[in-house]
Design brief:
Chain lengths: ~280, ~300, ~350
C-alpha cells in the first residue's frame, strides 16, 4: 500500500471514530454516571471517567425500588402494544388499498396521508388538550392510546404502501384465478408474504411511541401515569436537585436496548426512500 | 361483483378507517386550533368568544415572541446546514465496507432512536453549569479556564444566551444527523457502481468524482432528508424544554416551547394556538418542497 | 495505440478462482475478442486490465509499461460499459467533455474535441440532451464518443451491444468494426455472443472457467477447435458430438448434407440419419434426429441450406455424408483435440 492509500485510510478511520464518538458519547456517559457514587458525582474535581471512590449499584437500586421507573416502563409498554395493534389494523389495509387499487387518485390520497405527518403535535396538542379534558380522559393512558396513532398511522401507511408496491401484481392475479376473491388474495396470500414489512411497522411504531413527549407531558399529570419519556425528565428532580446517577441510569436503560432492535430494521425503511432515485 | 371482488369498493373500505381516524384526530383538532386562535378560550372556559386577529396581533407585539420566532428559524436552519455537510461526509465514509461497520452504524443511529427527552437529559448533564464534563476538560486538561479566583470562568453552557443557543443547535444536529446520514447512505448505494468506474477511467480523482458526480446525483435524496430534519428541528419543543426551559429569560424560546408554556402552564389556549399556528405556513411550504423533491427522486 | 499483455494473470476470490493464469498479448491495433459463457472470467479479466480490479498475481503490461500499481486514469485506456454508464445529470456534451476536464485540457480545446467526437458518431444534434432522453443506440454512441475523445491507447468494451434490440445489433456491429478499423486503436472486446465475436474480432480468445481455451482468428477457432468446449461453444446450432471407438467425434450441423448433394472429390464419410422433426426456418431447414446406426440415442441437428431441395419426411432415414476432414476427434476424458482415426 502506498503513501496516498495509507493516508486516505487513516483519514477514513479518524472520521468514522470522531463521528461515532460524537453520536454515542452521551450514552457512554450515561452508563458511566449510573454507577458513580454521589460523592463523586457532586465533586467537580473528581476524575469523570473513572470511579475514584468506587462504583455503586445504589443509584440503580433507588431507580428501581424508590421511583416509579418500572411503572413508567410498564405504562409505555402498554401504550406501545395497544397503539401498535391499532396502527396495524388501520395502516396495513390502507397501505394496501393505496398501493394496489386506486390509480392516480390513490396516489394523491397517499401523498395526502403522508403530508398530515407535517401537522405536528406541537400544533395539535393545544386543541387535543381541550378535547381530552372534555372527554374526561385527562391523566389516563387512554388519552395517549387515542392520540398516538395520529403520528404512527400516516407514516406506517406510507411504509406499507411501499412494501406492497414491491410485490408483483401477478401474485394476487394468480390467487384470484385459483379461486380466491380479491380480499381473500390479500388476507391469505399477500399478508403472509409481508411479514417483514409488518414487523418493520411494529418496530417503528413502538419506537415512535417510546420517543413521544409532548402529548405525554400535556395529557398526563400524575406520576404513576407517566410514560418513560416524560416521567424521567419530570420526576427525577426534587426541587433543584437532579438525582443524576439514577437519572442517567434510567436514560440509558430506556434508550439503548431499543436501538439494537431498530438497527435491524432500518435498511427496509431506507429502501423505501431510494427507489429509482438515480435515473440513468 | 361482490364487494370482496370489486377493486374500488374494496379500496374504499380498506382505506376508510385510516381516513376517518386521521380526519377525526388530526383534521378536526387542526380546525379547532384555528378557532382557538381567533377566540379567547382558556383551559377552564367551556367555549370561547370570537376576538378576531387579536391573539396574532398581541403575539407579534411581544418581543419575546419575536425572539422565539427568530430562534425557531435560526436553530432549524443552522442545525440543518451543519447536518448537510456532516451527513454527506459521514455517508461517503460509511459507503466503504470495513470491519465493525455494523457497530458503527448502531452507534451512529443511537441519537435518533433514543427518546429525544432522554438524550437531551444526557446533554443536560454534559452541559451542567457546575459538573460539566466539558468544563472539567477545559479546566483540568487544557487549563483554559477555571473556578478559582483570577481565572477566566468556565463557560456556563446553558446559562449564557449565545452559548445556550449553540448548545441547543448542537443537540439538534446530534439527533437529526443519523436520519440524514442513513437516508444519504441509501441514496449513495443506489448510484450504479458503473458510474463510479466510468469516472475513475475518465480520469477523475476522489474529490472530482465526489463533487461533480456523486453529490449531484444524491442531491434530491439529501435534500429530502435535510427537509425532514428541518421540520423536526423547526417544530421541536423537547430539546429546549429539557435544556433551558426557554431560558435564560426567554432568550432561547422557540415557537413550540412558547406555545406550550403559554397554553399548558399558563392556561391561555387561544394565545398558545395563535403562536403555534405561526409554524404552519413554513410547514406547508416545506411540504410542497418535499413533494417536488420526492417526485424528482421518485420517492413518493 | 499500444500492445496489451497479461502475464500469468490470476484473480482469486474467497469461494472461487475467476481468472486462472491467463497469458495474452494483443497485436498493435488489433481487435481482440474475449468470448465465453457468463462466469468464465472474461469481464473480470477486462476489469483487471482496466485497473478496476486488482489482480491476485501476475502482471499487466500496456505499451511496454507494467501498470500493476497504476489507477485506471493513468493507464491510457478508455472503457465502454455494458450499461454505458453515462452520467445521468450531465448533458451529452458534458458527458463527452468530462474526461477532458479531468485531464485539465484547456476549454477551447475541449469544445473542438467534443465536436469532433460527436460528429464521428453522428450525434451532434444530441449534444444538449440528457441521457434519459436518448434511445439505446444513441446512448451507445455517446459512450463511444466519450471513450475516444481522450485518444486512449487501448479501448476496452464490455458487452456494449447486449442492451440493444436484435435488429439494431447488426448495424451497430458494422459501425463498431468500421470505427475501430478507422481509428486503428487496440481494442479488447468482451462478449458471450459468438456471432458477434466471429464478426468483429481479428482474433478470438475463447475462455471457460478462468482459462483461455484457444486463441486464434475466427476461422481457426471455428474450423480447428482446440477442445470440445471451443467446438461446442462456437457455431449455431452447436456442433454434434457422439462417442465412437473410445473417442468423441464431432461435426457441425451444416457440414452434413444428403449424399446426393455432395459433388466433390474429397473423401466422404456416409451415415444414415433418421429424421424425427423438421423446423423450416426459411433460409435453412433444421433436421432434428440421430445417426441411426452410429449413435441412435444421441440427439443431433443437421442444418440444410435452402439450396438443397431434397424433400424430407419426419420419421424417415436418409443417407447423409460428411467430408472426412470435417470430422473432429477429441479425447474422451479431457476433451482435447486429437488426431483423426477411423470411425
Amino acid at each position: 500500500m502506498n503513501a496516498r492509500e495509507a493516508s486516505a485510510k487513516v483519514a477514513h478511520r479518524t472520521l468514522i471514530v470522531l463521528f461515532s464518538l460524537f453520536a454515542a458519547f452521551p450514552f457512554a456517559w450515561m452508563l458511566i454516571t449510573a454507577f458513580k457514587k454521589t460523592n463523586d458525582l457532586l465533586d467537580p474535581n473528581s476524575f469523570p471517567f473513572g470511579y475514584p471512590r468506587g462504583m455503586t449499584l445504589e443509584n440503580l437500586r433507588v431507580l428501581f425500588e424508590e421511583t416509579l421507573f418500572l411503572r413508567w416502563i410498564g405504562n409505555t409498554v402498554f401504550v406501545g402494544v395497544v397503539v401498535v395493534i391499532i396502527t396495524l389494523l388501520l395502516a396495513v389495509p390502507a397501505g394496501y388499498a393505496l398501493a394496489r387499487l386506486s390509480g392516480t387518485f390513490g396516489e394523491q390520497l397517499g401523498i395526502g396521508i403522508f403530508l398530515t405527518y407535517l401537522v405536528p403535535p406541537t400544533i395539535l396538542f393545544i386543541p387535543l388538550a381541550k378535547v381530552v379534558s372534555t372527554l374526561h380522559l385527562q391523566d389516563t393512558l387512554w388519552s395517549l392510546v387515542l392520540t398516538y396513532p395520529s403520528f404512527t398511522i400516516p407514516f406506517c401507511t406510507w411504509l406499507m404502501m411501499g412494501f406492497f408496491k414491491a410485490i408483483p401484481k401477478d401474485i394476487e392475479e394468480a390467487a384470484m384465478v385459483d379461486g380466491l376473491s380479491r380480499l381473500g388474495a390479500f388476507t391469505k396470500v399477500i399478508l403472509p408474504m409481508s411479514v417483514a414489512g409488518i414487523l418493520t411497522v411494529v418496530i417503528f411504531t413502538f419506537t415512535l411511541v417510546m420517543q413521544e413527549f409532548v402529548y405525554g407531558l400535556t395529557f398526563i399529570n400524575s406520576g404513576r401515569n407517566f410514560t418513560v419519556s416524560v416521567g424521567v425528565p419530570s420526576f427525577l428532580v426534587r426541587g433543584d436537585v437532579y438525582f443524576w446517577g439514577s437519572l442517567m441510569g434510567a436514560c440509558f436503560i430506556a434508550s439503548v436496548p431499543i436501538a439494537f432492535l431498530y438497527n435491524l430494521f432500518v435498511d427496509r425503511f431506507i429502501a423505501g426512500f431510494t427507489v429509482g432515485a438515480v435515473k440513468g | 361483483m361482490r364487494i370482496a371482488d370489486s377493486p374500488n369498493a374494496l379500496a374504499r373500505i380498506l382505506i376508510a378507517p385510516a381516513l376517518i381516524y386521521i380526519g377525526a384526530v388530526i383534521g378536526l383538532p387542526f380546525i379547532l386550533s384555528l378557532w382557538f386562535a381567533v377566540s379567547d378560550v382558556t383551559v377552564s372556559s367551556a367555549a370561547g368568544h370570537y376576538v378576531g386577529l387579536e391573539n396574532f396581533r398581541s403575539a407579534l407585539d411581544d418581543p419575546s415572541f419575536r425572539r422565539a420566532l427568530g430562534n425557531t428559524f435560526l436553530f432549524a436552519i443552522l442545525s440543518q446546514l451543519i447536518v448537510i455537510v456532516l451527513a454527506t461526509t459521514l455517508a461517503v465514509a460509511l459507503r466503504k465496507d470495513f470491519r465493525g461497520k455494523w457497530m458503527v452504524r448502531l452507534l451512529i443511529l443511537l441519537p435518533w432512536v433514543a427518546p429525544v427527552s432522554l438524550g437531551s437529559i444526557g446533554w443536560l448533564w454534559i452541559f451542567d453549569s457546575i459538573y460539566s464534563l466539558i468544563n472539567y476538560a477545559l479546566y483540568h486538561w487544557l487549563h483554559v479556564c477555571g473556578p478559582l479566583p483570577g481565572m477566566t470562568p468556565c463557560p456556563v453552557w446553558l446559562g449564557q444566551p449565545r452559548l445556550a443557543m449553540a448548545s441547543i443547535i448542537t443537540v439538534q444536529v446530534w439527533r437529526t444527523l443519523p436520519l440524514a446520514t442513513v437516508i444519504n447512505l441509501g441514496g449513495l448505494s443506489s448510484i450504479p457502481q458503473d458510474i463510479h468506474d466510468a469516472a475513475s477511467i475518465d480520469g477523475a480523482g476522489f474529490f472530482r468524482t465526489l463533487f461533480q458526480i456523486t453529490i449531484p446525483l444524491v442531491l434530491p435524496i439529501l435534500l429530502v432528508a435535510v427537509l425532514f430534519g428541518f421540520v423536526f428541528a423547526f417544530t421541536d419543543m423537547i430539546v429546549v424544554w429539557v435544556l433551558t426551559r426557554g431560558g435564560p429569560y426567554d432568550m432561547t424560546q422557540v415557537l413550540a416551547s412558547m406555545a406550550f408554556f403559554k397554553g399548558i402552564d399558563g392556561g391561555d389556549l387561544a394565545g398558545a394556538s395563535a403562536i403555534a399556528l405561526f409554524l404552519f405556513p413554513v410547514l406547508a411550504a416545506a411540504a410542497i418542497l418535499l413533494l417536488r423533491l420526492a417526485r424528482r427522486a421518485e420517492v413518493v | 495505440m499500444a500492445i496489451v499483455e497479461t502475464k500469468q494473470i490470476r484473480k482469486v476470490f474467497a469461494d472461487h478462482t475467476a481468472v486462472d493464469g491467463v497469458d495474452l498479448a494483443t497485436g498493435e491495433g488489433e481487435f481482440l475478442v474475449l468470448l465465453g459463457p457468463s462466469g468464465c472470467g472474461k469481464t473480470t479479466l477486462l476489469r483487471m486490465i482496466a485497473g478496476l480490479e486488482k489482480q491476485t498475481s501476475g502482471d499487466i503490461v500496456i505499451g511496454g509499461k507494467v501498470v500493476n500499481d497504476l489507477p485506471p486514469r493513468e493507464r491510457k485506456i478508455a472503457m465502454v460499459f455494458q450499461s454505458y454508464a453515462l452520467y445521468p445529470h450531465l448533458t451529452v456534451a458534458k458527458n463527452i467533455a468530462f474526461p477532458l476536464k479531468a485531464a485539465k485540457t484547456p476549454s477551447d480545446q475541449i469544445q473542438a474535441k467534443v465536436q469532433t467526437a460527436a460528429s464521428m458518431f453522428g450525434i451532434e444534434r444530441l449534444l444538449h440532451r440528457k441521457p434519459r432522453q436518448l434511445s439505446g443506440g444513441e446512448r451507445q454512441r455517446v459512450a463511444l464518443a466519450r471513450a475516444m475523445v481522450r485518444e486512449p491507447a487501448v479501448f476496452l468494451l464490455d458487452e456494449p451491444l447486449s442492451n440493444l434490440d436484435a435488429k439494431l445489433r447488426t448495424s451497430a456491429r458494422d459501425e463498431l468494426q468500421h470505427f475501430q478499423r478507422r481509428l486503428g486503436t487496440t481494442t479488447i472486446y468482451v462478449t458471450h455472443d459468438q456471432v458477434e465475436a466471429m464478426g468483429l474480432g481479428h482474433r478470438i480468445a475463447v475462455m471457460n472457467k478462468g482459462k483461455v481455451r484457444q486463441l486464434g482468428p475466427p476461422q481457426e477457432v471455428y474450423n480447428d477447435p482446440a477442445d470440445t468446449f471451443v467446438a461446442g461453444f462456437l457455431g449455431s446450432p452447436p456442433m454434434n458430438f457422439f462417442e465412437r471407438g473410445g473417442a468423441i467425434v464431432g461435426f457441425r450441423p451444416e457440414q452434413m448434407l444428403p449424399k446426393a448433394a455432395y459433388s466433390t472429390q474429397e473423401p466422404l464419410v456416409h451415415a444414415w440419419f433418421r429424421v424425427d422433426r423438421v423446423e423450416n426456418l426459411g433460409s435453412d431447414r433444421l433436421l432434428y434426429g440421430s445417426l441411426r446406426d452410429l449413435a441412435p440415442d444421441v440427439k443431433m441437428i443437421v442444418n440444410l441450406p435452402f439450396t438443397v431441395h431434397l424433400p424430407i419426411t419426419e420419421g424417415q432415414a436418409y443417407e447423409f455424408s460428411v467430408k472426412q476432414k470435417d470430422l473432429k476427434f477429441f479425447d474422451k476424458e479431457s476433451g482435447v483435440r486429437i488426431a483423426p482415426r477411423p470411425l
